[in-house]
Amino acid sequence: MDTLSTAPTSHGGLIFPLDMFRPTVLAAVIAELLLGKVRNILDATLEISRHPTSPLALARIHGNVVGEDPAEFWRTNPDIALAASQAVPRQCFVYYVRSGPNRREGFLVAQRGQALAADDSDRDTSGQHWPVTRLVDQLRITVDDLANGFAGGPRIELSLMEPTGNDQNLLMALVGQPPGEAGDEELDDMGEEPPPPPPPSRGGGLTQGFSAPPPSAAGGSSPVSATSSASPPNQSAKAPAKAPQVTAADDTKRRASERAAELQEMQARSENAAKSLRYVEDERGLVVLVPVELSEASLLSNYIVPVIESSLPDGLPSALLETLTGRAIDFAVKVEFFSEVFVDAQPLNRPKFEERAREIDLGGTKVKALEVLAPRLGIGTLLRLGSTNVFVSRRPDAPLPAELLLSLLKS
Fold first, then answer.
1. Locations of Acidic residues compositional bias (predicted)?
2. b/e map of 335-366 (b: 16 or more CB within 10 Å)?
3. Contact 314, 302 (CB under 8 A)
């Protein structure tokens, strides 16, 4: 069944795991970006809603700035994700979906101001590669959930021209808890308490799934204005237990602990990869087969050395240093999706690859090759044999070690 059959013809927005963040800061960041593009945001508002059963937040812009085709607005403004990713704690992504004869789907994932991955498709005769349709399956939601703005979930609304409000109360409204007794002033001082923690989640990536919010999370789709006040509590009803608060010091300690755990995990991944390296030497230097994913740029960047001087990356025998000094080190890694690399500043797709790639001879085997950009790593070559892709951090006109690359392409 086509999941777009009951959805609006065009929609898009910003999706991120609901974690401790400042809604007014997110709105201000987006407003500043749009104003920098000389966009009219006088009537623009930012609506943030939470999925009724998952700790996912959806931010959508309403107003003339979006135009008549929201999908086109979000498609042509993917930098909103880059800006927003610096205002939320974890990954976020811009998505867009347009149904009908001109069907198109796509998204861009960002974290800490960097683009991590992207995908876009406006034609798929097989019906198997519509990016957002595939992605929402991993998020355990549906395209209709996005189209309907997470109907049934709590929501708030902020003016982009004047994104003001009490961040604590706004976040508590999204979490589904009653607002506390905090004043209307902003939480600018370090001594004040930040918003309460959101529903628990599993993993740090958007596509790793999330647990459901706690039973106390309330539904309701009526927007909560940034300037509205809470209704007075029923004096005859028993006052609910006050949610535990987190101080700024506790939040700082939590973030430091999470960062330390991240670094520890990255170090462990680096050490494990260094133990499993394969490499081959040629006239240019060394090409190393690194057993990680292309998205793990911080690990792969260790194996891009333009000129070897006094040391070698971890996992390579020190005995090679004498013969390799003054030469280069490159890496090779398998690539699962075309969209992991870019051409003409856009995520690569299969039609563009088929159009641009040229056939080359690699050790007696005909393979297709195309010069591409790997985000945060640089220019290289994408090789394809059958349905297997391999990225090597050398341009197509540089020597390509056939035996090593074919072992990847045929595995």
1. 182-192
2. bebbbbbbbeeebbbeeebeeebeeeebeeee
3. yes
DSSP 8-state code for residue 86: T
371 phi, psi to nearest 5 deg: -75, 130
Cα(192)–Cα(149) distance, integer angstroms: 32
H helical segments located in 199-318: 248-275, 297-300
- pLDDT for the residue 97: 92
Sign of CA dihedral 233, 237, 243, 244: positive
DSSP string over 193-216: --PPP-S--SSSSTTS--PPPPTT
For residue 304, give both structure tokens.
Answer: 């891009």
pLDDT tens figures, 102-122: 888 989 888 888 888 888 887
Burial class of residue 225 in the structure, from the number of CB atoms within 10 Å of its CB (0-12 exposed, 13-18 middle, 19+ buried): middle
| Inter-residue long-range contacts of 187-195, CB under 8 Å, 24+ positions, other chains counted | 187/22, 190/248, 191/248, 192/248, 193/168, 193/245, 193/246, 193/247, 193/248, 194/20, 194/167, 194/168, 194/246, 194/247, 194/248, 194/251, 195/20, 195/21, 195/22, 195/167, 195/168, 195/170, 195/171
Q: Which amino acid is at 40?
A: N
Ranges assigned E (strand) in 51-102: 56-62, 92-98
Structure letter (DSSP) for residue 9? S
Question: Containing H/E element for 140?
Answer: none
Rounded CA separation 16/28 (Å):
17
State the pTM of this model.
0.48
Say which DSSP state 305 is in: B
Q: What is the mean pLDDT of residues 137-147?
A: 87
